[in-house]
Design goal:
The complex is a heterodimer of chains A (about 220) and B (about 240). With about 220 residues, chain A is mainly α. Chain A contains 9 helices and no strands. Chain A is globular and about 55 Å long. Chain B is built from 8 helices and 7 strands, in the order E-E-H-E-E-E-E-E-H-H-H-H-H-H-H. Chain B has about 240 residues and is α+β, with helices and mostly antiparallel strands. The chains are: A mainly alpha (about 220), B alpha+beta (about 240).
Chain lengths: ~220, ~240
């Protein structure tokens, strides 16, 4: 076991931990989006979907616990890496090169990640927590998401969701391909496929999520 | 032309530094950047002031001794050159050049623009060598090596250890340097015997020296005067994982 601990204490081990947890969270987004898109199918479809999840409670709870662990691993190792990296560069330059040498979204992972974290707390505290308190076959989850003070008909909520999702997209813009670089799979053999798959995660999936607050907040 | 040099002045490791501004007149565009600094230093000596200390040796872009941050760019604004290969024709009359030493906890300032890069030496001592006897220089093609591998190893071996990667990295990570050094051995038959211990020891020493963690911004690749690719970082990650498990 000590060799495993040693591995995760090393700079590369810490990066591997960031990459594995980050990718797992990114894959969760697929399942989450698939569920969300049922909102477009109307109240009945969405309510039935949430109810079917409620009937699988033990499984859902296990999945939630695993997700929480993965998420905390990502957050804590992210904080640790960020603090260590600040310490490694005690004095910054008078003139910063900025976009001449790197993309802004690759330099601002800690910022985009932190704001997404704040969003997630809000998101869980509103939708997730409200859903936990609702029982029975007549529970109207759709109503909570679409027509309630915490729902998307509130323009403030919709705008907050859209902004947070744009930041999530930027986070994934760097994070997804960065994970494969960390695994050592970003060289010429794999670069093409990694970059193409990355588009799904940083563009198409976030756009899918954004379509919901956009539609229910401003179009419908 | 007239150039304003805003230089970092720091007497020694323990003193606090500050920027000082010096106008330099009659700069020719044919001068190298260092000839311009030499001219400024002559002027400072005449005025009874301390000349600006900076590292330089071969002045032909191959030794890796020089390295200055010029207006936020490691080795100046040009791609693929060291500071000594930068000429004043890259600037124009009236330009202000803010020149700073490499900034990293692992590269403490010794004086002015000179930093202590012995951390790189200690990383090399930890494994950047082949200790088995590989004999004399063999005839060409005695040991068959794939062309792709030979090319990649050679590209990695072009690293001159100047430290621009660490300087350009917002995390002061040395991954490009260590990646290049590990790659040049990992790709060749002579490096196989110590392949696993090498990568573990060099990464271990890199961490001890206080370099930061790589966040894959690729600023190092942009600023490297030898244009070492971040593919070497990917290879380093792969080598380290393979050696650890």
């Amino acid at each position: 076991m000590t060799w495993l601990l040693q591995f995760f204490q090393s700079s590369i081990g810490k990066k591997i931990l960031m990459a594995v947890t980050g990718l797992l969270l990114a894959f969760f987004l697929i399942a989450h989006l698939a569920g969300n898109l049922m909102l477009f199918g109307g109240p009945e479809m969405f309510n039935n979907y949430v109810l079917s999840l409620t009937n699988l409670k033990p499984l859902v709870r296990i999945a939630e616990a695993l997700l929480t662990l993965i998420f905390l691993g990502h957050v804590f190792s992210g904080i640790r890496v960020t603090l260590e990296n600040k310490k490694a560069k005690p004095q910054s330059y008078q003139v910063a090169p900025r976009s001449a040498t790197s993309n802004f979204y690759s330099r601002t992972m800690a910022v985009s990640g932190s704001i997404v974290f704040i969003f997630l707390v809000f998101h869980l505290q509103t939708f997730w927590w409200s859903f936990q308190k609702m029982h029975g076959n007549d529970a109207d989850f759709y109503e909570v998401v679409v027509h309630s003070p915490i729902g998307f008909n509130n323009p403030l909520v919709a705008v907050f969701y859209i902004l947070a999702l744009i930041l999530l997209a930027l986070h994934l813009r760097h994070g997804f391909q960065s994970a494969f670089q960390t695994f050592g799979l970003a060289d010429s053999r794999y670069k093409g496929i990694v970059e193409k798959t990355a588009v799904l995660f940083w563009l198409i999936i976030p756009l899918g999520f954004i379509s919901i607050p956009l539609y229910f907040g401003f179009i419908k | 032309m007239r150039i304003i040099v805003q230089a970092w002045r720091q007497y020694d490791r323990n003193s606090e530094g500050n920027f000082e501004s010096y106008p330099v007149d009659n700069v020719s565009e044919d001068m190298s950047f260092f000839e311009m600094l030499d001219m400024l230093n002559n002027q400072l000596l005449k005025d009874g002031k301390d000349p600006i200390s900076f590292d330089h040796d071969c002045r032909e872009g191959i030794c890796g001794t020089c390295g200055i941050m010029i207006n936020g760019r490691a080795h100046g604004p040009l791609k693929g050159v060291t500071t000594c290969q930068l000429h004043m024709r890259s600037f124009k009359d009236g330009d202000t050049l803010v020149i700073e030493p490499w900034r990293a906890r692992a590269f403490p300032v010794i004086r002015d623009l000179v930093v202590d890069r012995s951390g790189f030496d200690r990383v090399m001592e930890a494994g950047g060598y082949v200790s088995v006897s590989t004999g004399g220089v063999p005839d060409a093609n005695v040991i068959p090596i794939l062309k792709d591998d030979a090319d990649s190893a050679f590209d990695a071996a072009a690293c001159i250890g100047c430290g621009a990667c660490v300087a350009a990295c917002k995390n002061s990570s040395a991954m490009l340097f260590v990646g290049a050094k590990v790659s040049q051995y990992a790709l060749l038959p002579q490096g196989q015997v110590e392949r696993k211990s090498r990568v573990k020891n060099m990464v271990g020493q890199m961490d001890v020296e206080g370099f930061g963690n790589c966040t894959n911004t690729s600023a190092c690749e942009v600023e490297c005067p030898k244009e070492i690719s971040v593919e070497n970082i990917a290879r380093l990650n792969r080598e380290f994982v393979k050696a650890s498990f």
